[in-house]
C-alpha cells in the first residue's frame, strides 16, 4: 500500500494551500477538499495522497516507469526555464527546480511517485505528483522545509504557465520517445540474429509449404532471411510513428487557447525542451486540435502491434518447423530449455516461442485498449490518456524483454536437421513444379498424380517415362536452380 502513515480527514481545519505546518515528523497540507497530514518521509503532497487513495486500481504505478518520470522532469525543467526567461521565477526558484528535475533524471526520488498509472482526471494526479515532488525537493535545495509553499508553490511555480492538459501529454510523448530509443536496439539485435541464421542455413535445402501443404523447394536460409526482412521493414514504420512524439502542445494550457500563459511562453518552452533533450522537438501547429488528439499514441501502438503480429508468425513457424521429434516436421531443433511435461518423460516443449507469442497477444490487446481510449475523446480533451500511456509503456517493456528472450534463448541456438530437410525434398511431389516450364503443366500433373497413387518418387517417374535425361533432370532439380529464378534452356525428350 502507498497510503500515508496517518490516514484521516481533517477537512474541518482550514489551512491556506500556500503553506504547511510541520510537527512530529508530519506536515499538514491543504487543497480545495480540505487539509491532510503527510509524513515528512514523502516528497509528494496532499493531491498525490488523494490520488493514491482514490485510484487503487492496478499493479502499475508511476514509479515502475522511470522514463515516464524522465518525461515529467524534462517537461517541468523546460517550463521553469521558460518562466524564468519571462521573469516569472527568480534565479533561485528556477535553479532549484532545475536541480530537482536533474535528480529525477539521475534516478533519484522515484519512490515518491506511487500513483496508479490508471486514474481518472486526465492525468491530473500524475501531474500534481510531479509538481509536488519537484517543489518539495526544490524547497529542500533552497534551504526550506517541506511544504513551505510560500517560498515555492507546486501550482504557481512548478506548474506555472501549464495545465495538466499540456504538461501531461508532453511528458507522455517524451517518455515514450525515450522508451522507443530504448526498444529499437533490441529489435535490431533480434533481426541480426535472424540474419545470422539465414547465412548459417543458406546451403540447407528444404520444402516450402503453403496452407501447410508441400509447395516448392527453398533453403532454410531463405526462411530465416524472410523472418528478418519482414521485421526490417517495421523499423522504418516504428521510427516514423515515434517521431510524431516530438511534436508537443506545451503552451496550450487548459484547452489549447493558452490561457494563463504569456505570448512567448510556448516558443520559449519548446526551445528549452529541444535543448534539454537534444531532440528535434517542435510545437504542434494547432493547440486546440492537439489537446484533445491522441493520434501519436494510437499510431505508435499500432506500429507495435504490426511488429507483434509478425513476430508471432515467426514463433508459430518455429514451433511447426521444430515439431516432433519423431512424428512432426523436425526440420530444425530449438534449444531445450526445460522439461516439457509432468507426466510424459522426455518431452521438451518450445517454451520460448510460446512465451513470445503470449507477449505478442498482450501487445495486440493493449493496442485495442489504446484504440478504444483514443476514440473516447470528447470536446477539448481526452480524459482516457492515462490508460493509453500505461498500455504503450507496458507494450514496449514487454517487447524488450520478449525480443531478448527469443533471441538469446531460442534463435541463436537453433540447429538444422539437414538430412531430414533433404529427404522431404526428395520425397515431395512438390518438386514437379520446377519441371513445369520444361515439360508443361499437363505432363507435370500426370507425373504428380501417378506419384500420389503409387507412392513412387517424381524423380524415378520422369526417368521411367523418358521425359528428361538423368543429366538434365539433375540439373533442373539442383538446389541452386530451384530456389531462385534461372534460365536453363533444357528441352523435354518427348
SSE layout and pairing:
Blueprint: E1 21-23, E2 26-30, E3 35-39, H1 46-54, H2 66-85, H3 91-105, H4 124-142, H5 154-158, H6 164-200, E4 205-210, E5 213-219, H7 220-243, E6 247-248, H8 265-277, E7 282-283, H9 287-292, H10 295-321, E8 332-333, H11 351-374, H12 385-409, E9 415-416, H13 418-427, H14 436-439, H15 441-454, H16 458-464, H17 470-476, H18 479-482
Parallel strand pairs: 6-7
Antiparallel strand pairs: 1-2, 2-3, 4-5, 8-9
List keywords for this structure.
494 residues, mainly alpha, 3-stranded antiparallel β-sheet, two-stranded antiparallel sheet, Ribonucleotide Reductase Protein R1, domain 1
Give the amount of beta strand, in percent: 5-15%
Question: How would a crystallographer describe the biggest sheet?
Answer: 3 strands, antiparallel
Derived structural class: mainly alpha
CATH names the topology of the largest domain as Fumarase C, Chain A, domain 2
Amino acid at each position: 500500500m502507498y497510503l500515508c502513515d496517518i490516514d484521516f480527514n481533517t477537512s474541518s481545519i482550514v489551512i491556506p494551500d500556500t503553506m504547511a505546518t510541520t510537527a512530529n515528523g508530519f506536515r499538514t497540507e491543504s487543497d480545495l477538499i480540505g487539509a491532510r497530514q503527510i509524513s515528512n518521509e514523502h516528497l509528494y503532497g496532499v493531491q498525490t495522497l488523494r490520488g493514491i487513495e482514490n485510484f487503487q486500481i492496478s499493479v502499475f504505478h508511476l514509479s515502475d516507469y522511470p522514463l515516464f518520470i524522465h518525461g515529467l522532469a524534462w517537461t517541468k525543467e523546460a517550463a521553469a526555464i521558460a518562466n524564468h526567461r519571462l521573469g516569472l521565477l527568480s534565479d533561485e526558484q528556477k535553479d532549484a527546480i532545475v536541480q530537482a528535475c536533474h535528480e529525477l533524471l539521475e534516478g533519484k526520488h522515484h519512490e515518491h511517485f506511487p500513483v496508479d498509472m490508471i486514474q481518472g482526471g486526465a492525468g491530473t494526479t500524475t501531474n500534481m505528483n510531479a509538481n509536488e515532488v519537484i517543489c518539495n525537493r526544490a524547497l529542500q535545495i533552497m534551504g526550506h522545509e517541506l511544504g513551505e509553499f510560500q517560498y515555492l508553490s507546486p501550482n504557481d511555480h512548478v506548474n506555472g504557465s501549464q495545465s495538466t492538459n499540456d504538461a501531461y501529454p508532453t511528458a507522455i510523448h517524451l517518455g515514450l520517445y525515450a522508451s522507443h530509443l530504448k526498444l529499437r536496439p533490441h529489435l535490431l539485435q533480434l533481426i541480426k540474429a535472424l540474419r545470422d541464421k539465414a547465412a548459417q542455413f543458406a546451403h540447407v535445402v528444404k520444402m516450402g509449404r503453403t496452407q501447410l501443404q508441400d509447395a516448392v523447394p527453398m533453403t532454410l536460409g531463405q526462411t530465416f532471411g524472410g523472418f528478418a526482412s519482414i521485421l526490417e521493414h517495421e523499423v522504418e514504420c516504428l521510427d516514423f510513428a515515434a517521431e510524431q512524439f516530438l511534436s508537443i502542445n506545451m503552451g496550450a494550457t487548459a484547452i489549447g487557447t493558452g490561457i494563463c500563459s504569456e505570448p512567448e511562453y510556448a516558443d520559449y518552452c519548446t526551445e528549452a525542451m529541444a535543448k534539454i533533450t537534444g531532440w528535434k522537438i517542435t510545437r504542434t501547429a494547432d493547440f486546440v486540435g492537439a489537446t484533445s488528439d491522441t493520434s501519436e499514441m494510437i499510431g505508435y501502438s499500432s506500429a507495435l502491434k504490426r511488429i507483434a503480429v509478425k513476430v508471432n508468425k515467426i514463433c508459430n513457424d518455429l514451433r511447426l518447423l521444430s515439431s516432433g521429434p519423431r512424428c512432426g516436421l523436425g526440420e530444425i531443433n530449438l534449444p531445450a530449455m526445460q522439461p516439457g511435461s509432468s507426466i510424459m518423460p522426455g518431452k521438451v516443449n518450445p517454451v520460448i516461442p510460446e512465451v513470445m507469442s503470449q507477449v505478442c497477444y498482450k501487445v495486440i490487446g493493449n493496442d485495442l485498449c489504446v484504440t478504444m481510449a483514443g476514440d473516447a475523446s470528447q470536446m477539448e480533451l481526452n480524459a482516457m490518456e492515462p490508460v493509453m500511456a500505461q498500455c504503450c509503456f507496458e507494450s514496449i517493456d514487454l517487447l524488450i524483454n520478449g525480443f531478448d528472450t527469443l533471441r538469446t534463448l531460442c534463435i541463436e541456438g537453433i540447429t538444422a536437421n539437414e538430412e531430414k530437410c533433404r529427404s522431404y525434398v526428395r520425397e515431395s511431389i512438390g518438386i514437379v513444379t520446377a519441371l513445369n516450364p520444361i515439360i508443361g503443366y499437363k505432363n507435370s500433373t500426370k507425373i504428380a498424380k501417378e506419384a500420389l497413387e503409387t507412392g513412387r518418387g517424381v524423380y524415378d517417374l520422369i526417368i521411367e517415362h523418358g521425359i528428361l535425361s538423368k543429366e538434365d533432370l539433375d540439373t533442373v532439380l539442383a538446389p541452386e536452380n530451384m530456389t531462385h529464378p534461372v534460365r536453363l534452356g533444357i528441352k523435354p525428350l518427348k
